[in-house]
From TrEMBL:
It catalyses: a CDP-1,2-diacyl-sn-glycerol + sn-glycerol 3-phosphate = a 1,2-diacyl-sn-glycero-3-phospho-(1'-sn-glycero-3'-phosphate) + CMP + H(+). It is an enzyme of class 2 (transferase). It comes from Variovorax humicola. The gene is pgsA. InterPro entries: CDP-alcohol_PTase-I, CDP-OH_P_trans, CDP-OH_PTrfase_TM_dom, CDP_ALCOHOL_P_TRANSF_CS, Phosphatidylglycerol_P_synth. It is found in: Membrane. This is CDP-diacylglycerol--glycerol-3-phosphate 3-phosphatidyltransferase. NCBIfam families: pgsA. Keywords: Lipid biosynthesis, Lipid metabolism, Membrane, Phospholipid biosynthesis, Phospholipid metabolism, Transferase, Transmembrane, Transmembrane helix. The chain crosses the membrane at residues 12-29, 132-151, 157-176. It is a multi-pass membrane protein. Its main location: membrane. Its EC number is 2.7.8.5. Belongs to the CDP-alcohol phosphatidyltransferase class-I family. Pfam families: CDP-OH_P_transf (PF01066).
Length: 188
């Protein structure tokens, strides 16, 4: 199941990372770099929904795909955050919160799976909302301009990425609370 259409789409999110980063080193005007990186991020981020849909529709779900999909998402988000910090469009503190949470929850989920309790840390609505807010904030910050002569994407992106950081902490607390009974049982 390494080379099904849904898995290939997931791989594209990983391949996209150096492409998005590389855009900011092109010898073109900043507004054009911003636009190219934004469009690329949106297109590649959309494959997250599409690959899952196709995997179910084509009956090509696999444990490898279930593993790779969230890894690709996390790579894309973390790399984009690092670019935004480098460009001084996102605060280091926000990036540390979001990246730190991703590492902590990934480790928690791995441990819970090893002890047979992965259902207690299954994806919850708060995690999905956090992801949606991130996936709106990041392209707004990448674009960093005025959209439709009205929307200041830098300002909106700034607020949305902070909202995302709050949701990130909230979701981490939620997952830790769900895992706590298992953690306590194993700590004895």
């Amino acid at each position: 199941m390494f080379w099904t259409l849904p898995t290939i789409m997931t791989w594209t999110r990983i391949v996209a990372i150096p492409l998005i980063v590389g855009v900011f080193y092109l010898p073109i005007a900043e507004p054009m770099r911003n636009l190219i990186a934004t469009v690329m991020f949106i297109v590649f981020a959309a494959t997250d929904w599409l690959d899952g849909y196709l995997a179910r529709k084509l009956n090509q779900t696999s444990s490898f795909g279930a593993f790779l999909d969230p890894v690709a998402d996390k790579f894309l988000v973390c790399a984009s955050l690092l670019v935004l910090v480098h460009l001084q469009r996102a605060d280091v503190f926000v990036a540390l919160i979001i990246i730190g949470r991703e590492i902590a929850i990934s480790a928690l989920r791995e441990w819970m799976a090893q002890i047979g309790a992965s259902k207690s840390v299954a994806v919850h609505m708060i995690g999905k909302v956090k992801t949606v807010v991130q996936m709106v904030a990041i392209p707004f910050l990448l674009f960093n301009g005025t959209l439709f002569d009205y929307i200041d994407t830098g300002r909106w992106g700034h607020w949305l990425i902070w909202i995302s950081a709050v949701l990130t902490v909230w979701s981490m607390v939620y997952y830790l609370q769900k895992a706590l009974p298992e953690i306590r049982a194993r700590a004895k």
